[in-house]
Specification:
Layout lengths: L1 E4 L3 E4 L6 E3 L2 E3 L2 E7 L2 E7 L2 H6 L10 H20 L25 H9 L6 E2 L2 E2 L15 H5 L29 H7 L1
Antiparallel strand pairs: 1-2, 2-5, 3-4, 5-6, 7-8
Amino acid sequence: AGISVGREVVFDPGPGGWVTIDGWSYTGRITVRAEFGRLSVVETVAADDYLAGLREMPASWPTEALKAQAVAARTYLAHTMAGAGDRRWDICATTSCQVYRGPVGADRRWVDAIAVTAGEILLYEGGPAQALYSASAGTSTVASSEVWGGAPVPYLQPVSSPERGVSPWTEWSVRVAADAVVRML
């Protein structure tokens, strides 16, 4: 493992090593820099190791579901990286992108699904499709153009999602103080 210090700190775990942050272990080179009054932590990792580190669905789910998720996740990564421009990172590690926690401890069934679908992505008009997915869609999805604007995408149109009684996120409520609503308006 190597550490270099300058305008940033780089932790390189080396072959077979890892760096643990907040209980999750990462195998790639970790770069930490102070930016905009906060710390920025970026891991440089191979695409398959990134995919292995995703925690998007239970590894106990059927093999075909894991394979479909591997293709969707790889497609999402390819689409996001294609639009990364000159950012110092390609994709975030939260629910805003894909939930990434590092490949150490990845379930064997999930890693096998990644291997069996190696190189497979979904294409649309010659490029990686915008493979959007979520943990729950309630009772119906909505068109991408309703959420993000722009031109409608044929494969991102509303479909019913029979989750009532299945998903714990189908229905929810939140209380907001009246004065907070007034301030928002």
